Amino acid sequence: MPLMNNVSHPKLPFMKMHGLGNDFVVIDARTEDFDITPAMARGIGHRRFGIGFDQLAVISKGVGDSHLTFFNSDGSTSGACGNATRCIARYLMNDLNTHRLHLTTERGDLFALDAGDGLTSVNMGPPQLNWQDVPLAEDMDTLELPIEGSPTATGMGNPHCTFFVEDAERIPLEEFGPRYEHHPLYPQRTNVQIAHLVGPDYLRMRVWERGVGVTLSSGSSSCATAVAAARRGLTGRKVRIDLDGGTLWVDWRDDGVWMTGETMHVSDGTFTRQFLESLG
């Protein structure tokens, strides 16, 4: 399927954004539909032959203010991406002149608000704590999986596997992450987090992202880690999480898991016809 429905369009506009170094290419398709295939996402996501991203996000018309669709850099799709949702929420709040948004994703309805001081908050919804909702391959307690290190499984619209260790800095994440991303207990693969307790309600976390690799930050991973830490009695339900790219604040409330942090709209650009046609 071609990327552009109407070949009269010589270029496709895009935005580059990041949330604490977790970077995105964002396409605003609210006024005209564009078909993004996995091959297109892989081509755009290549950091030498394309633009490069951790996720590609497409904004389209939705039941609420907008609908968001996410692709990983390997072309696979993701039901949720917290940092991209925050970045897009900031862009849409500015565009629509509002302080609150109702967004829809594969994950379901998400709500965002302007938290002041340049910060943006997104409610990522209730965590999925039952094995079939994460999902896992078989019935088991998600609090401590039968894997070395006894990680915790959490669903946040995408699967997560969180290890609590003595020192997250000392774990070779490039080797550790892929070993568990493809673990047979996770039929859809999983995001992998390693975290340690810095102080009361204060965590240090590093992330291996499913379909991406090592990333400087991950919003859904931060939410999953905060939920896992609270369930295990390591923290309360409101925590600070320091990632490689900066700090997020996560608050697990009755209405869902709220995540707050900074966003950055880096630049605007266009993909040329030559580049788009090269993607097939």
Key attributes of the depicted protein:
single chain; 280 residues; alpha+beta; Diaminopimelate Epimerase, Chain A, domain 1; 17-stranded mixed beta sheet; disordered N terminus
Mind explaining what this structure looks like?
The chain is of the alpha+beta class and about 280 residues long. It folds into two domains: about 10-125 and about 265-280, Diaminopimelate Epimerase, Chain A, domain 1 (Roll); about 150-255, Roll (Diaminopimelate Epimerase, Chain A, domain 1), CATH 3.10.310.10. The chain is about 20% helix and about 40% strand. It has five helices and 17 strands. The chain has helices at about 40-45, 80-95, 175-180, 220-230, 275-280; strands spanning about 10-20, 20-30, 55-60, 65-70, 75-80, 100-105, 110-115, 120-125, 150-155, 160-165, 190-200, 200-210, 215, 240-245, 245-255, 255-260, 265-270. It has a 17-stranded mixed beta sheet that branches. A hairpin with a 2-residue loop joins strand 7 and strand 8 (about 120-125). The longest helix has 15 residues, at about 80-95. Mean pLDDT is about 95; it is low at about 1-10.
